[in-house]
């Protein structure tokens, strides 16, 4: 390691290994190591031939002429090919018995249920596509979707895709200002929303927020409103129309447009840590290919399965793994509108029992909340339908992984820890549940066709068990194409940090078996006495203590050590805070990973500040730990009261 480019050091060691359960392996879509290795070998020998062979699984109106055109950092996949995603997700299944199969089983937070078969979903999508056309939306126009998690959101997405309009979904928790900025950045012509939705027992108003935003959005010509809560709202004459009324005025036939493989499918804004949100642009053919394949390989979906990804459709996880990936595979998707703890902390387990969910995909932040609420909640329910568990969004602490395995999976279900980003479009690093032996806390290995490495800032590959920067070395079909309206930022942010490769912004280590361990965002790295430590390892050491549910560590400037480590810790339900426990936790970290990582200060708290997608906002904690005042942008904070409480706890 050169002293000019101090790298990230790794202290963690995790020895447990869990081979895929034999029973699972036997019926898995990819169930033999030989099959897996041969895919991998094929992909690395000739990536383009491999991707072309994989792309045969999609329905193309016209085959491509060229698999890949690559001029760093711009990629075009399946050039000359014509397809339609909504056709792939719907029409394709109407030719078989799948037409009468449930595509979506939806449960609202107040308890109502709706089921849409593939045939029903298809006709709704066609109708709404006609509504879009009637509203003046044309191929290439942008449409903003600001909606609760209801089937109409999936219908609207697929309808946009059907006519070649580019959707931009803005999560229903964002403010009028954030919505306005996103609408203006993308120049949206139409907004689709609802009167409101439900969350944790209350009604969340959406339409009033849209009204506020639309005061300053010159490109918007109309607004379509779904009646969800029935609450009284303002309808602006000439601009606003009810979804259910418009749907009556159109017919249920609308052929899918034959779109270029590189046609823009969607823009999705991601905030990053600072600065203006970036409109990540995904296109059609390459994106669908990887969403489709990863869903099939990693979630092992079979026709008889009920699959549930708990993400809101407003995040990329919802785009790829609630809508496009599962539907293109003809799966039955469960959707739940509301909070995991309404009316009680066992709502998720109740849903799994009620519907017989087989495949369950959620986030570490949710798992840590379940741990904090206590295992009595899942233990009340029959979870025996589950056969596969997944996680995404943050590094999962090995102890949280073990809890997930034992308490939810009863030691029977493989866990797929899937690493990817809004920018990557689809999962890049993950076990295949029928073949990969898993290690708690590791996303294991990159998928066939994905070439990942760990490097120094200077672009040198690091050795086994050394920390460094996670990079992707070859273009992949579902990669972002640019940042909407800011190609320079695209080049600079992702392709200039380390020359010639995609810079993911995460720290990582690869162990001697070639397994990847994500160490957290490089912006959050802590520098102690010249040693750079990733946040994930120190946090996992804390979480491995029986009293700890969740932890976030940050650095505070220190005259002697450069930085001191401050740990914010939440405890599992039954444990009490005390100075003795603080001391014990410090010793515990020293024992687990060494004195270098020993927190200088421990602060107990009831909750940690999170983004609306559930990621811990260490930046805010850093500001608190340093000076008390939080100056930076807090608009992505999920719950403002958490910050108030943290401030109060300090006094
Ligand atoms: C960042 C991307 C991709 C869907 C949801 C988040 C972190 C994501 C993992 C994982 C460790 C993970 C990374 C990544 N991340 N999955 N399995 N293990 N870290 O999408 O909001 O674009 O966030 O989430 O830091 O860069 P996103």
Salient structural properties:
single chain, 31% helix, binds 5'-O-[(S)-butoxy(hydroxy)phosphoryl]adenosine, 23% strand, disordered N terminus, 651 residues, seven-stranded mixed sheet
Give the bound compounds: 5'-O-[(S)-butoxy(hydroxy)phosphoryl]adenosine
Whole-number mean pLDDT: 94
Extended strand count = 31
The radius of gyration over CA amounts to 24 Å
Topology:
Layout (H helix, E strand, L loop, with lengths): L7 E2 L12 H6 L5 H13 L1 H9 L10 E6 L2 E6 L2 E2 L1 H5 L12 E6 L5 E5 H17 L7 E5 L4 H13 L2 E4 L6 H11 L3 E5 L1 E4 L2 E4 L1 H7 L8 E5 L13 E3 H6 L10 E2 L3 E7 L7 E6 L1 H14 L7 E4 L6 H13 L3 E5 L10 H9 L3 E4 L1 H10 L2 H4 L8 E4 L6 H11 L6 E3 L34 E4 L11 E6 L9 E2 L3 H9 L6 E9 L5 E6 L4 E3 L2 E3 L1 H9 L4 E11 L3 E10 L7 H15 L7 E4 L13 H9 L13 H11 L1
Parallel strand pairs: 1-28, 5-18, 7-8, 7-9, 8-15, 9-12, 12-13, 17-18, 17-19, 19-20, 20-21, 30-31
Antiparallel strand pairs: 2-3, 4-14, 5-6, 10-11, 15-16, 16-24, 22-23, 23-25, 25-26, 27-28, 29-30
Helix pairs in contact: 2-3, 5-6, 7-8, 10-11, 13-15, 17-18
The structure holds 5'-O-[(S)-butoxy(hydroxy)phosphoryl]adenosine (WT7).
